[in-house]
Amino acid sequence: MSxxxxxxxxxxxxTMNSEEVKTEETVNSQEEIKEEKVKTPLTTEExxxxxxxxxxxxxxxxxxxxxxxxxxxxxLYSTANQDMMTALLPILDNFERSIKANKYTDxxxxxxxxxxxxxxxxxxxxxxxxxxxxxxxDTDFHEAITNIPAPSKKEKGKIxxxxxxxxxxxxxxxxxxxxxxxx
Length: 183
Fold this sequence. Notes:
Elements: H1 3-38, H2 44-79, H3 82-102, H4 109-123, E1 126-128, E2 142-148, E3 159-164, E4 167-169, E5 172-175, E6 177-182
Parallel strand pairs: 2-6
Antiparallel strand pairs: 1-4, 3-6, 4-5
Helix pairs in contact: 3-4
């Protein structure tokens, strides 16, 4: 046989083999479908187990939903005053500046009003961040505004001055303390 005839014969054999494989696959898949149809229906006990499982999953999902909404509700109550507190912080700062500038005593009106306002805000959950002077910068509570040369080696990398006080509301930072750090 010539080369061309051999090549034609090989091509014909390959196509025949691929067609045989395809027909075998379709026959196998048809048999599987028939077997699935022939399967016996589930017993009542099996159906009961399936329904109990569905019921248990539904109950667990509802329980998770109930817990999640309760947690969200508690969180909402604890931070509901956040906007109002944020608006009142500059007023507190201005009171402090006024008291320092005018050198008021504890019996003067503005000092009494300032103390009363601060007490009421503390009842609602507002806490002042402790004075960080001398401590290392903690970015969870402080915002470094500037770096200045440290007066001594001990103060290098530590907070030297507080520009604006920081506040917490329900253990979350409401305003970061603005500080100056020694370099």
